[in-house]
Amino acid sequence: MATTTVPKQIGARVRRKEDPRLITGASTYTDDLKLPGMAYCTVLRSPHAHARIASIDTSGAEATKGVLRVVTGRDVQEAIGGLPVAHKIEGLLEPPHRVLAIDEVRYVGDGVAAVVAEDPSTARDALERIEVEYEELEAVVDVEKAAAGGPFVHEELGTNVAFTFPFEAGDVDGAFQDAPVVLRQRIVNQRQIPFAVEPRAVAARFDRGHRKLEIWSSTQIPHLLRTQLSVMLGIPEHSVRVIAPEVGGGFGSKLNVYAEEALVGHLARELGRPVKWTATRTEGFQATIHGRDQLADVEIAASEDGVLHGMRVKLLQDLGAYHQLLTPVIPTLTVLMLPGAYRLRNLQVELKGVFTDKTPTDAYRGAGRPEANFIIERVLDLIADATGIDPIEVRRRNFFPADAFPADTCTGLTYDSGNYQAAVDLLLETVDYDALRREQAQRRERGELMGIGVACYVEICGLGPSAALPAGGWEACTLEVRRTGRVVVKTGVSPHGQGEETTFSQIVADALGVGLNDVEIAHGDTDYVPEGIGTFGSRAQAVGGAALSMALEDVRDKSRKIAGHLLEADPEDVVFDEGKLHIRGAPDRAVGFQDVVTAAYMADDLPEGVEPGLASTRFFEPSNFTFPFGVHLCVVDIDPDTGEPSIRRYVAVDDCGNVINPMIVDGQIHGGVAQAIAQSLYEQAVYDADGQLVTGSLMDYAVPRASYLPSYELRRTTTPTPVNPLGAKGVGEAGTIAGNPCVMNAVVDAVSHLGIRHVDMPATPEKLWRIITERD
Amino acid sequence: MLPSAFDYVVPDSLEEAVRALTEGPDARALAGGQSLLPLLKLRLARPARLVDLRRLDGLRYVRKVDGGVAVGGLTPHAEVAGSTLLVGGGRALAEAAAAIGDVQVRNRGTFGGSLAHADPSADLPAAVLALEATLLAHGPDGEREIRAGDFFLGPFATALRPGELLVGARMEIPEGSRGAYVKLRHKASGFALVGVAAVLEMDGSTCRRARLTVTGTGGRPLRLEETEEALAGLSLEDGRAVREACSGAGEVLEDVHDDLHGSAEYRRAMTSVMATRAVLRAVG
Ligand SMILES: Cc1cc2nc3c(=O)[nH]c(=O)nc-3n(C[C@H](O)[C@H](O)[C@H](O)COP(=O)(O)OP(=O)(O)OC[C@H]3O[C@@H](n4cnc5c(N)ncnc54)[C@H](O)[C@@H]3O)c2cc1C
């Protein structure tokens, strides 16, 4: 663009504008809301994994002073529709999923009844006065047994297999025939519990005058929630307003439509009073979606030069007891991304989604892609081990070469842009790899355990073309320049920690020559920002930012026309500078941006054919996903006495295309890698044989603390995407996707001389201690 | 996460507190609240009355007494951890207090609260047992002394009688003694999967008498007597000999916890490792 000035804000490490408000307690979260006449809701949950409800007696609760309403599944059956699942999977079995269970409960935490009372304590007390008689049924806990036969989570289905998703590309049998290297490995992605510091919370108010339902929810997707609540509650969508105030983390767990959102909306409408529900920490563990829980049996065909020729993968996805919004979709992303950064041509996958009596699984940071990358990056290390070729060299031999882009994968994707060799080159400039290998050999002689792990990744971001998604893949932006010169950006990508208020302000500042504080980013209120899809799948910048760029282009064009008119010059010759517009080459022939804004609203001296006002609304529809990539390396030491692993060094080379704010991108990598380390070494949701969640609190579920984590050395290459005008690809999940295999490859490497080829996550001290003592 | 209803009183004196605890049924003392509040919120405890001890400032001290140190029942962990009086063998107690939870927990949680709560994985019980402390209880019948060895009866069970408060402890710190506490942290809770306290009386580099205790492996903290004997008379400069002496520390333990977070076998093995480390740290 001839008129673009040198970017000043884009690419700068600008401090987050939203932070002062967030860290001084000056912001409002859903649970902070106190509306006049507000009543409080609590939910009674099943203590059993699988049971028939013989009877429910709510009379004790109803008789409690201060209790306004007690409802069971039957009571709301007519008024509230089932919970939605958005998918494009052929033949998917969709058993009913009610906001409160009817006749049968299917996981510990399944909602059974709800109480609304004048205050939270009374509501909590009343829960204990509801008497439920359960007849316990056999719990379906083991996913392999569940896939093989009964008992069934949903008896009426006659199977636990909700869907099968077969995939085949190339000549897989041919690849295995005569392959000199054939390997088999079971690779498990254990169940995890997303942990947002702010638990879920919902408040609702029904405006009887306007017959309008207002819902405040700690959600990543106010707009999709609005649509689904309209369907569930039978209220026209235009009569539902969803507000996502400040949202304290989501990681995918708030990319959903939950029972309580509809329930609280219904109760507020029915009682004519505002109602609020806030999850307890226990409900956060039991009744908010879980992540991962995928079991893969992998067969590998490779040649002696380390080239991967074919893979057969049997995937079992534990769905939990019901479908939540995207439950069955997540493992299909695993299938798509199995080739990783490599030219794999022959791939056969048999994916089964299986119901069990556990909390439903759904999107958790990375959502299907960490699973895929863990598999393929373990596979590359297994090939390296079997062929005796260095893991980095094996990767180089399998990469898509830099001139292959746009590159087609055997799973039907087209990688937009990339240069995987360059990322590895930068890694090797940063780390003296050979010296690390020498050190490892010396330490081994002394009986010490040191491992070096490398993992590449390609991730699918910027979700995505509407045709490829179950509920739209576009994003909308309205840009309004107010009379005072204030620039208001209304965006559909409602952030919950991503920092868009800052990055979007940077984009506006450069485009219009205004200051960062002249820009206001509005989001998370469907009345104020009526259209959007939401923040997930590393899409906010790549899709939402792109919509902003389009709207900015409109406003710039119009501003130039007005400025050209005021300066009696050709608009084509007008350029934006700090706070003003001037004629190219003649900085003195200028008008202030505010003058242009004033002219746009005074409208008494506008050029011919130019409407008053200065605003634009644009929708961006991406033509493709974006595919960021990179390579991570870490060094792990294992204490030979206790088995405790510790990460000594972690180096990440990431390429997410053009970077708006390097500090925020760094932060996303830090957080992403932290969650990968969490899965690799610490976190695991465990159910016992009866389907009880044994790790149902922070006493048992090991969310890592800051002190467990290393400091990160971050490097970047920049390969812009052609898919959107910003050239930005997305980075929210990269660290999580790269990190698991990176850490686990290092762990395996540390004990490989003991004959170990694979270690299951999490690599707990005891697990490693057993390996060490048993092989000693 | 809301407790059931309770009465709440804040007495101004120890006598008043004891009265408030014995007047009606089901009264519970509240000190730092770091163990009690979670129990209340989960409704695992439903006392009829809470007696908040926060005004009993006189029970908040670490002070020198004849031949040793005394610690008040309401002294926060942070003050125990930072006390300059806890030197030599007393390091076992300071390090145990420093190993508790995080800064917030150490600032609020109290010495007496931790001992009275008697969590089988808590850190302080191991230290007071290794120091052979004398615990001071104050109840309706006045004050009495309980030896640390007689105090811990089992998981969450102590020798305190109804209405009795743990007001403090006194421990001897032998001249020239050395002490340390090390623990293998449970990754989720931060409590001890295995924690070992060591108090060593030394003749130069030779150990005259060793007192070693372990927490986290069973229902209550235990003395590791065989290891204590193996260490007596040993030169502790010889790391290999220390390791050898401690190698059987875990094997002799009975009824070792066996759960999701650690098998009995692992806890036994780690007892030996932590014992070795505690001894080497004490003399290091
Ligand atoms: C996040 C977290 C992490 C923690 N980590 C650790 C850890 O790593 N290691 C560890 O050892 N502990 C840990 N704790 C527990 C902590 O040490 C508690 O402070 C301690 O166990 C209880 O002390 P308190 O003063 O808070 O007692 P409270 O919680 O107030 O009371 C606990 C119990 O003791 C009774 N009680 C309190 N004071 C007295 C008294 N003077 N006399 C008689 N009875 C009394 C109460 O009635 C109650 O039954 C942790 C706690 C938290 C919240």
Plain-language structure description:
The complex is a heterodimer of chains A (776) and B (284). Chain A has three domains: 19-26 and 474-620, Aldehyde oxidase/xanthine dehydrogenase, molybdopterin binding domain (Aldehyde Oxidoreductase, domain 4, 2-Layer Sandwich); 37-137 and 197-249 and 254-286, Alpha-Beta Complex (Aldehyde Oxidoreductase, domain 3), CATH 3.90.1170; 291-464 and 624-775, Aldehyde Oxidoreductase, domain 4 (2-Layer Sandwich). Chain A is globular and about 85 Å long. In chain A, β23 and β24 (586-592) form a beta hairpin. Helices cover 29% and strands 24% of the residues of chain A. Chain A starts with 18 loop residues before the first helix and ends with a helix. In chain A, the strands form seven sheets. Chain A has a seven-stranded mixed β-sheet with strand order 3-5-1-12-9-10-11, with helices on both faces. Chain A is α+β, with helices and mostly antiparallel strands and 776 residues long. Helix content of chain B is 31%, strand content 27%. The model of chain B has no long low-confidence stretch (mean pLDDT 96). In chain B, a hairpin with a 2-residue loop joins β6 (134-139) and β7 (142-147). Chain B has a five-stranded antiparallel β-sheet. Chain B has a four-stranded antiparallel β-sheet with strand order 11-12-13-14, with helices on both faces. A three-stranded parallel β-sheet of chain B has the order 1-3-2, with helices on one face. Chain B folds into three domains: 7-52, Uridine Diphospho-n-acetylenolpyruvylglucosamine Reductase, domain 2 (2-Layer Sandwich); 59-172, Uridine Diphospho-n-acetylenolpyruvylglucosamine Reductase, domain 3, CATH 3.30.465; 178-283, CO dehydrogenase flavoprotein, C-terminal domain (Enolase-like, domain 1, 2-Layer Sandwich), CATH 3.30.390. Chain B starts with 6 loop residues before the first strand and ends with a helix. Chain B is globular. Chain B has 284 residues and is an alpha+beta fold. The longest helix of chain B has 20 residues, at 264-283. At the A-B interface, α4 and α20 of A face α11 of B. The site of flavin-adenine dinucleotide has 29 residues of chain B, from β2, α6 and β10. Flavin-adenine dinucleotide is lined by residues 28-36, 73, 100-101, 105, 109-110, 112-114, 116-117, 119, 122-124, 160, 165-166, 190-191 of chain B.
